[in-house]
Amino acid sequence: MSRPRHKLRHRLALCLMKYLARIPAARRPLLAGMLARIILRLSSRTRKRAINNLALALPLLSDQQRRTMVRQSYTGIIQGLLDCLNLAELEMDIHCDEQAAQYLASGKGLCVVTLHTCCYELVPLALQRLTGRSTTLSHLPKFIDPKHNPYQKAGIGYVEKKQPGAFVKLLNQVKQGAVVTLHADLYAEDINVHFFGRETRAPAGAAMLSAFAGTPLLLAWGVKTKEGRYQVFIEPFMHQPVERNKTAFELVTRKLYERFEQIILSYPEQWYWSFNRWRT
Amino acid sequence: MEVQQRLAEILGEILARPAQDFQADTLLLGAIAEFDSMALMMLITELELRFDVDLQDADFDAETFSDMANLSEFIQKSIEYV
Fold first, then answer.
1. Which of B52, B42, B51 is closest to A212 using CA atoms?
2. Which of A61, A220, B20, B28 could anchor a disulfide with A123, C-beta 3.0 to 4.6 Å?
3. Which of A210, A212, A215, A250 is the best mutation test for B, with the most CBs of B within 10 A?
4. What is the ipTM, given to two decimal places?
5. Is A211 on the interface with B (CB under 8 A)?
6. Could you tell me if B49 lies within 8 Å of chain A, comparing CB atoms?
C-alpha cells in the first residue's frame, strides 16, 4: 500500500477511535450489543469458532444456550474494548486477598497473571490504582499517539509485545519494582496443558517471569456484575518464586489452567470464547 | 574466543542448530525465530550453569542478546566480576 494511503488509513482509524472514545458509558452496552450481533452475523468463522469452543468446554449446553452465550461473550468483548478507550475513567470495585495486598504494598516488583474476561485491561488498571506502578504487555498500533494512548492516560506502563526482547524488558521492569500483568489464557507453544478436557498448549511467560525475577506470582481477573459494575479479584497463586527449570514452569502453568477453568466456569459468558484457543 | 565457542555450543543445543551457525557477527534475538522467551530463559539458566555465574541480579537488556558479540562480552564481564 502506498504511503499516502497508509497515512489516510491511520488517520481514519484514529478518528474512529476518538469518536468511539466519546460515546458515553451509559450508551456503550447498547452499542456493543448491536456491534456484536452484526459482527457475529457477518463473520461466520468467528461465530462458529466460539460455538465450537463452547461445545467442547461446556457440552451440556443446548445449541440455543451456546448461541446466547457467544452473543453475551462477544458483547462483553466489544464493550470491554470501548471501555478500554476510556481506561482512566473506569469505575471498579477491587477485591484483594489480604496476603496479596501485603505483596502489593511491599513496593517490590511482582508478576500477576490474568485471563481475558470482559474488559481485559481491568487488572492492570486495578493494580495501577492500588500500587501506582503497573505495567502490562500489549500491542498498540503505531498511529496511536501519546495524547490518545489509553495506557498512558491511566498511568499504566506497557511493553510493546511485538518487539524483540519484550520479555527481557518485562523482566527488568519487575526487577525495578513494577507490578507486571501478563495474560496467560491464549494459545502459545511453550507448555502442554489440559484445558477443559483437551490437550492444548499455553504460554509459560508468567511462570518464567516469577522464576527469573524471583517474585511471588499473583492471579487476578476482572468480571462485570449483572448491574454492569466492574469488579477485580486478586489472590496469591505462588507465595514463593517459581523454580527456574522447565518442569516447574510446566507444573505451575498446568495448575494455573486448572484455576482458569474454575474462574471461567464461574463466569462463562464473560470469557473470550472466540479465540482459536485449541487450534482446532 | 573460548567464551564464544562455548556460547556457540550452548546456543546450538538450545536452538537445535549446529554450533558453527553462531559466529562473531551472528544476530540472535529478533533475528532467529526459535529464539523466543522460553529459549532465552533456558539460555540464561545454561549460561549460569556452564560459566558458573549468577545472573539473577546482572544488568542485561534486550541489546545484550541481540548478537553473539554483545552476548560474549556480557558473559566475559560476568565471569570477571565473579
1. B42
2. A220
3. A212
4. 0.89
5. yes
6. no
